[in-house]
Amino acid sequence: MAASDLAADARILWRLLRGQPRQGSPAERLQAFYAPQADRYDAFRARLLHGRQELIDQLGFPAGAHAVELGCGTGSSLQRIGQRLDGLASLHLVALCPALLEVAHQRAYGLSNVQVIEADATRWQPAAPVDIVFMSYALTMIPDWRGVIANAHAMLRPGGRIGIVDFHLPASGGALGNRFWRNWFGHDGVHLSAEHLSELRRRFVERHCCEARATVPYLPGLKAPYYRFVGERAG
Question: Structure pTM?
Fold first, then answer.
């Protein structure tokens, strides 16, 4: 890794060590935490956030589909969707952090079927029901995560699909291991839960689910637990 990349990583690690601010609105806390990281956000997290391409591929994004990403961050999902993006009827990218959304706006420039929206994922609704709702490592960052899942359910048409990949606290993790990951991520405003999957299964018909562990930059030997879930809204 080049010295400039190491220096950029060091700045992000310093922010992670300091943690997310405890005061202000959710949008203000996100902006204060992520604005200094925005230019290096994707490069660092590519080594931490696993399973995102697999989720995109499972959802398929067929031609003519209307899709929504809640908690879109920098809009890096546009790269993972790739050429399938051309066939989508619409894709709404929704998030609260202006610094990350500025990068998303740059990525979406010139794409007439993509709209970037600064809004609360627990409240924003599209004008009409959509075919796909997906989230990538965003559910753990929203305090009212049950509200997000309920809102996603409400915006999906019957038969529409939801896809989520995120960290969690697996039943197999053990009390000590799960406590470590809860505290480690919680310092930076990422709140792991053992209840995400049960709530998703309650709301949606499960079509696919896998649980795995992923390496963490600069923490050799440690692997963080995550899941990938695809479900369908019942008719």
Answer: 0.82
